[in-house]
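Predict both folds.
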Amino acid sequence: MSLDEFRTLVARHARPDTTTPIEGLQVAKVERPAQPSASMSGTVLALIAQGAKRLALGDRVYEYRAGQYLIASVDLPVTGHFVGASPEHPALGIGLTLQPDAIAELLLRAGPGDLPRPGTGALPGIAVSDAPAEMLDAAVRLLRLLDQPRDRTVLAPLVIREILWRLITGPQGGIVRQLGLADSSLTHVARAVRWIRDNYRRPFRVEDVAQLAGMSASAFYRNFQAVTAMSPIQFQKQIRLQEARLLLATHPTDVARVGHRVGYDSASQFSREYRRQFGVPPSQDAARLRDAAGPVTVTLP
């Protein structure tokens, strides 16, 4: 059965840094439960071989388990953790980075009638589905190539294209296809997401970011909310707080300066919003981060 072999191969090839010799492929193994941690999702396919992971984006919560995949079509601020992982029953899975150029090439090669007619409006930036047998089979063949260095360079890109095709033609194909379309609603929202991430310290008017994204203010707000499950201002706040937490891990005694550095003029507002996001005030969280032995870093969304 593909899922059994998939699980065996992931367990064998998992490394602490999750990287592999195949570009864009990561293999993850988590042996202990951890507190939910904030990260950026990346544009990725995450396929679970064993265990389960829970992920929150804005007010949406996703859970996916063995034989299911999560697709993220925009690099979004998420909070997640593996559920019930243990040394006896570790969570196992792979992550595959989605490249818009590769998706665009497959869309161009598709014949008439091969793909559903595109809908209107933006789709969510994250979705979960059951992995079809064909996708699991391709994932197994991709992992087998880790043991076949002579064949890997030539065959791995072909198998990755097959996996992308299964995504494009699958139940979440609309989300994936938008990645390869230069003028999709997702592309416009992704442009705004990148701008906010790069300029998260700066205040902005939604109308100005909408203009940068090439949309009217009303269409931009509606599509941004559909993709990210947040308003643009809420999105900026998530980025600021995530960055603040990273800074506090290395500067635990400089809370006020960290808040100012990520864009907060008011120390009390920074403390209030930080506590709402992470459950404790920044000073207490900084002490916890300093004393911790070190979180498990897993790049699989």
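Second protein follows, with its predicted structure tokens after the sequence.
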Amino acid sequence: MWNGLQAYRTSIILLSALVIGGTLGLTLPEFALKLKPIGQIFLNLLFMIIVPLVAISVTSSIARMTDLKKLGLILVSIMLISIVMAIIPAVGILGLAMTFDPAQGVTLDLHQSMQTEPGSMDFVSLLTTNDFVGLLSKSNILALIIMSVISGIAIGQSGEDGKRISSMLDSLNTVIMKIVSILMFAAPVGLGAYFASTMASQDSELIVTFARAIGLFFIAAIIYLTLGSSIYAWIGGGKAGVKLFWKNAIEPAATALGTSSSLASLPVNLRAAKKMGIKDEIADICLPLLVNLNKGGASMITALKIIFIYSLLGLEFTPDVFAITILISVLSAFVIGGVPGGAFLGEIFIVTTLGLPLEVIPILVIIGAVTDAPSTVINVVHDLNATQIVERITQKRDQTKIAAT
């Protein structure tokens, strides 16, 4: 049994620390408030590494990706499908959460104002800065990601010089990931202490809202996994494609649930794709790329985190906030999801981009940890769907070429 829980070791430790912290906050509030500096030190350490982590990780991953530019249609198809498969679950969970508010009127009182005025998003400032120095601030993560993607493309198109820079970035990325792994040893203590101080001034009813939010995600995940997967399989191969998909998707889904890792599920996914009759040259190219790019489960949970926190803080979820939530969700799935070892990067990304109070980070971590396994199942299973669709697109292209000759 313990071997089966090993994949969830980190999540179990984190959740245990947060439960202990929350209990201290509710039972010994005066003591819990004194723990806040410990949590603040841990968060500050993460904030100190966030800019180089994003810049180097995203740039190096994009630089490597553009080595496949000769494959043209396949690469473009993978990117477009991944984006669409990130938008659909994000929009769906937002619609569900707006209909069935998981907060149910419970308000989180943090006595802290937002850094940005709710309802008045400045998209120019979110997406760009007016000088290079601005990219070095954690408050401009979106702009940093955009510039990192552009830089990665430029490096990938710069021939031998680009390869030398890409190799250097890979080495830097290894060092950055090691720094992150060192910092994460303190995560249970740091986040537990911060959550204790947050809960010290809150109503115990706040705990119930977590269950509602997580329950909402599980309902949405089941609907999306069954209905969405069937529709994607039909797009990729018609009725026969749906039958083939469900005949072979169970093993990858079970592996994803057991390991909570898209990467660990890759060998099983490759075998399933070949059993489905997908060409080797398609499966061998698409699935390794989709492991990092196609993360609809991550997009769904990111969107839920944002609307849940807005509801808890009593903030209006305006059309502008809706749009930026979709953008953050897609980027979390498409770019940040591919950053190895970037623990809590998604939570920090949400908080800094939307100007939310730092106290909400442990709440986001709780939701993310509990929903990680089903989210991974969605990611893995839909990698198979995406590969089906890519194969159909390439087959149509080949048939068009044959007809033209």
